[in-house]
Amino acid sequence: MSAAIPLAGSGLGLRRTLLGPLSSRTAADVQFLEVAPENWMRVGGRLGRQLAEYTERFPFVCHGLSLSLGSADALDRELLAGIKEFLRRHRVLSYSEHLSYCSDQGHLYYLLPMPFTAEAVHHVAARIRQVQDMLERRIAIENVSYYAAPLCDMSEIEFLNAVLIEADCDLLLDINNVYVNSVNHGYDPEAFLAQIPGARIAYGHIAGHFVEAEDLLVDTHGADVIDPVWALLQSAYRRFGVFPTLLERDFNIPPVELLLAEVAKIGAIQTATLAARRLAVVTA
């Protein structure tokens, strides 16, 4: 975990439908929360006050949707200024964005895959450095799910690592995306994890997905986390140490008790991993 990011434990993506159900919960139930700043920057009134109450009570991280880091369009400086103010006002601990693009002379409202090429590495890394300069903080980029791989001169993991090094930024490690991509593109998820630079991990995501076919999974964040994804999270903890991890759920949101049971499962895996490490040190 990046030493500059004081996060710990298990978190949850805060959606507007959860503002009421989570109102009586404490850090014993969830250790940190995440929002997309674009969904809240211009929100005032009752909802704005509710968000401010949450940011007073819980540590927060932000996961952006609209910077379009991989696009050829100019960076949206007005959006960046708004994000910077939002992060300052709510004392947000970490800001992340997707390693993808979502604009082409206008917003496309979908996260599109970048070509895995050296030219794309140089392009997106320069934009990430520019964003970090404008925000005056390091950011994390997320390994994204993708369903087509255009113009590839390198593998997904080679592309990801090249961007991380050239941009000198952190990583938001999405475990479900690793699993989904491994099925859709036919690679070994453990071999992918083995090449992740663990020191750059800021925090992690875990989520459910939709099974379209045996060889086609869709990253919907609309279902429970499945056993192979839980197992991959355990593997990541054993490999890199325990890092803060957050449950994403965007659709088919169940009662809050069921959501928090998955958050608690993250915490249980973290606790078990730490206990196993301590035992290994004692018995070594």
Report on this structure.
The model is unreliable at 1-5 (pLDDT under 50). It contains eight helices and twelve strands. It has one domain (10-283): TIM Barrel (Alpha-Beta Barrel). It starts with 9 loop residues before the first strand and ends with a helix. It is globular. With 284 residues, the chain is of the alpha/beta class. The longest helix has 28 residues, at 256-283. It has helices spanning 45-57, 77-89, 118-135, 156-167, 175-185, 189-194, 227-240, 256-283, and strands at residues 10-13, 32-35, 60-63, 94-98, 101-103, 107-112, 140-142, 170-174, 201-206, 210-213, 216-218, 245-247. Strand 7, helix 4 and strand 8 form a beta-alpha-beta unit. The strands form three sheets. It has an eight-stranded parallel barrel with strand order 1-2-3-4-7-8-9-12. Strands 5-6 form a two-stranded antiparallel sheet. Strands 10-11 form a two-stranded antiparallel sheet.
Structural class, by secondary structure, is: alpha/beta
CATH topology: TIM Barrel
Annotated CATH homologous superfamily = Divalent-metal-dependent TIM barrel enzymes
Gap from first CA to last CA: 24 Å
**CATH C-level name:** Alpha Beta
Q: Number of helix segments? A: 8
Elements, N to C (H/E): EEHEHEEEHEHEHHEEEHEH
Helix content: 40-55%
Strand order of the largest sheet: 1-2-3-4-7-8-9-12
Largest β-sheet summary: 8 strands, parallel, barrel
Q: Mean pLDDT, rounded to whole units?
A: 93
The overall strand count is 12
**Quaternary:** single chain
Overall outline: globular
User: What integer value in Å does the Rg equal?
Assistant: 18 Å
* pLDDT < 50 stretches: 1-5
Strand % is 15-25%
The CATH architecture term is Alpha-Beta Barrel
Work out the count of structural domains.
Answer: 1
